[in-house]
């Protein structure tokens, strides 16, 4: 058992390091034009996010009133 563990550990470590370099080499080998295309298409952030609970069944923004909750300090004695 004491001889088998270092062999398995070394094999697993070697495999994981090889896979890591293989994945990193794919990123390093992309040309400048391909990087620009990837950045423009996949990583462009949207200006706003619509939460699913604001949409009706057909996917349009709902017109119904929404329940809102305001949290305040426990020692706030004013009631609106």
Write a brief structural summary.
Helix content is 45%, strand content 0%.
Task: Please describe what this structure looks like.
It is a single chain. The protein is mainly alpha-helical. It has a domain at 4-45. 45% of the residues lie in helices and 0% in strands. It has two helices and no strands. The chain has helices at 4-28, 32-42. It is elongated, with a radius of gyration of 27 Å. The termini are far apart. The model has no long low-confidence stretch (mean pLDDT 76).
Q: SS-based structural class?
A: mainly alpha
Helix-strand string = HH
Name the beta content range.
under 5%
Low-confidence stretches: none
Question: Any idea what the radius of gyration is?
Answer: 27 Å
Shape: elongated
């Amino acid at each position: 058992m004491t001889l088998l563990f270092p062999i398995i550990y070394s094999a697993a470590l070697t495999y994981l390091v090889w896979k890591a370099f293989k994945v990193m080499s794919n990123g390093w080998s992309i040309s400048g034009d391909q990087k620009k295309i990837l950045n423009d298409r996949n990583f462009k952030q949207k200006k706003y996010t619509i939460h699913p609970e604001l949409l009706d069944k057909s996917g349009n923004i709902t017109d119904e009133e929404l329940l809102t909750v305001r949290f305040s300090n426990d020692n706030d004695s004013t009631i609106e």
